[in-house]
Structures are given as structure tokens and as C-alpha cells.
Design goal:
- It is built from 14 helices and no strands.
- It has helices spanning 9-27, 37-50, 53-67, 74-106, 118-126, 134-153, 156-175, 190-209, 211-215, 219-243, 246-263, 279-300, 306-338, 340-347.
- It starts with 8 loop residues before the first helix and ends with a helix.
- It is mainly α.
- The longest helix is centred in the first third of the chain and has 33 residues, at 74-106.
Length: 351
């Protein structure tokens, strides 16, 4: 067993982060063909699974923050996040703001709301309304409150109770009609904080209370995790597709993230490829490419017949994420090689 179930913790994080990053690219690729029931069903399922990727990143981030945490290195950890989170957050949001407003003026984007005054543009930029960096925005907030939450989450019973309380509050927000559907990821309110923080808190709690158990490879636990993942897929097709709501979707994501982590222990200890360390860069930059290509293609498609357009749109959903990831990997290689200082700044010295 030791020879096969030997994937290391760091390798699993790199591999999983890259897989999740690819899932986010797929999630943000437009699906425009609504004429085929089977294809729509497949795309809906793909999107549903892809929606677990960002929450999973929150869970991993919470675990990594507290994995080596101590009261003595708290200040050091917080200041390190200025370079790894805050500075990249500001830079990428400025880039996206200029980019999106430019595309809007050129006519490549028609459904994007842009502000008409400077102050509104600054607020939209800071709030990451033009970029996918809302994840980093919440992550910065979660990191800031972590030194206080440490004293709650480090206790097994109290920490578990706190997480269950957050889950209960999230359910109450939905059934009381407080949660708007679909969720507005840019809404800076208590509702979004609670929902996103649950994932982060689960990761924190795992690192503080069950680190040795979580990082110890167990063949039996991995097999159980795989069985549970299969059961979750059955629940999706049999129940969620018919009777699902926000709470069933959230519950699925919590369980999916937890048990997928353990299921990956069945992998051999493969060394991650260098490009697998570019996950943060791909996450931050992928919408720049997707918006550009999808905007151009929407204009090009007007020259074709309806049947041809449908075929091209189906093909686009398959090839565009692949081309996007491959292109960004190449850009990352050249940026890291020829402008290492820029690379370190925009990625927080990742990869």
C-alpha cells in the first residue's frame, strides 16, 4: 500500500489546484447553444461540477493558512499576504477595468455594465466587478479575521459548532428569502461572507484539529471517499436535477470538496509539471482571453447560417478552454523567463 498510495501533500495541492483552475476556465466559457436537450443536460452538469472549484480553493486556502500557523508567526503570515494577495489583487483589477471598458467601447461586450464616472469606475475596480478576483477579495477578508477565528476553530467541539452554526445561518438566509438567486458574487454583504467563509472555515478547522489525520494516507478512507463521490453524483441526477435548490447545491459542494480531497489519495506520487504551478496566473488572466475571443467570435458568427453557427458554438465550448489554458501556459513561461520581477509581482511569487 505504501508504494502506491504515496502522493505527497504538496504534489496533491499543485495537481488539485491546476485541475480546479481548468474547471474555472470551463465554467467561464459561454454556452450559447440551447437547441439540443442532451447537450444542454451535459453542459448543465459540467457547469454544476465546475461551480465547486472556487469553493474548493477557499477550503484549500483555509487549510494552508493554518497548516503552519502559530501565534508567534501570525504577524509574518499576515504581512506575507500583502505580496501574495493584495498587490496582485490591485494590479489585476486595474488591468481588467481598463480592458473591459475598452472592449465595451469597441463593441465586443454588450451585456457588461460600465460606470460613467471616475469614482464609480474606481469603486467597481476595487470591488473586482470586472474581474474574477472576487475570490481574492474574500480571501483577503478571511485572512484578516483568521487571527480572531483561530481561538474558536482550534477547539474541536467549539470549532465544529461554529461551522454548523454558519451552515444553519446560510440555510436560514435562503429560506427566509434573504439570499438572492442567482447569487451575486460581488455583493459585499453578510450573506455572501457567511456562504464563502464556510468553505474557508472547514479548511481552517481541518488544519488546526485534524492535520495529522488528514495528511495521513489511508486506502480505506480513500475508497470510502470514492464511493461517497459516486453517491453524490447519483443524488445530483436523481434528486438535485429535479428538486434541487440553493441549500442542496451548497451541501453538495461542501461534501464534494471534502471527499474529493481524500479520494485523490489513491493517486501515485507523481511529480507536478511546471505548468501546474501556474494556477494562480491562469485564474487571474483567463477572462482576458475568453472575453476577447468570445467577443470576436460573436461578430464572426453573424456571417454564417443558423445551423453552422450552432455547430461552431458547440465546438467552441470544447476547444476554447483548451486553447485558453495552453496559451496562458506559454505566456506564463515567457513572462517568468524574461521578466521575472513582473512575474513575481503579478502572481505573488507563485510558480
Amino acid at each position: 500500500m505504501a508504494n502506491f498510495y504515496t502522493i505527497s501533500f504538496s504534489n496533491k495541492v499543485y495537481l488539485l489546484s491546476f485541475i480546479l483552475c481548468c474547471g474555472i476556465v470551463i465554467q467561464h466559457t459561454q454556452w450559447q447553444c440551447q437547441d439540443y436537450t442532451i447537450l444542454n443536460t451535459i453542459q448543465t452538469f459540467t457547469f454544476f461540477i465546475a461551480e465547486t472549484c472556487v469553493p474548493f480553493f477557499f477550503m484549500i486556502s483555509g487549510y494552508l493558512f493554518f497548516r503552519t500557523y502559530s501565534i508567534s508567526n501570525c504577524k509574518k503570515k499576515l504581512f506575507s499576504r500583502v505580496h501574495t494577495l493584495l498587490i496582485p489583487y490591485i494590479i489585476w483589477n486595474v488591468v481588467y477595468t481598463v480592458f473591459i471598458i475598452s472592449l465595451n467601447l469597441l463593441g465586443f461586450i454588450h451585456n457588461m455594465q460600465t460606470t460613467e464616472n471616475l469614482w464609480g469606475g474606481v469603486k467597481s475596480c476595487i470591488n473586482s466587478e470586472y474581474s474574477p478576483l472576487w475570490f481574492v477579495k474574500y480571501l483577503i477578508i478571511f485572512v484578516c479575521v483568521s487571527p480572531f477565528m483561530y481561538y474558536i476553530l482550534k477547539e474541536k467541539f467549539i470549532g465544529a459548532t461554529a461551522i454548523l452554526a454558519l451552515i444553519f445561518i446560510n440555510a436560514y438566509n435562503f429560506y427566509a428569502g434573504i439570499i438572492s438567486v442567482p447569487l451575486n458574487i460581488n455583493a459585499n454583504n453578510w450573506v455572501m461572507f457567511v456562504y464563502q467563509y464556510i468553505f474557508f472555515a472547514i479548511g481552517c478547522y481541518g488544519a488546526l484539529c485534524y492535520k495529522s489525520t488528514i495528511e495521513k494516507i489511508s486506502k480505506t478512507r480513500s475508497q470510502i471517499a470514492i464511493i461517497i463521490l459516486i453517491l453524490l453524483l447519483c443524488i445530483y441526477w436523481l434528486i438535485i436535477t429535479r428538486y434541487g435548490n440553493v441549500i442542496t447545491n451548497h451541501t453538495f459542494r461542501w461534501l464534494w470538496c471534502i471527499f474529493l480531497w481524500f479520494a485523490l489519495d489513491t493517486l501515485p506520487n507523481i511529480s507536478p509539471r511546471p505548468y501546474m504551478k501556474y494556477s494562480f496566473f491562469i485564474y487571474c488572466s483567463h477572462l482576458l482571453f475568453l472575453y476577447s475571443i468570445q467577443g470576436v467570435l460573436s461578430i464572426v458568427y453573424t456571417k454564417f447560417s443558423t445551423i453552422t453557427i450552432r455547430t461552431l458554438q458547440i465546438a467552441q465550448y470544447i476547444w476554447l478552454p483548451i486553447i485558453t489554458i495552453l496559451l496562458l501556459i506559454k505566456i506564463a513561461d515567457y513572462t517568468k523567463m524574461y521578466t521575472p520581477k513582473i512575474w513575481k509581482t503579478i502572481t505573488g511569487n507563485r510558480g
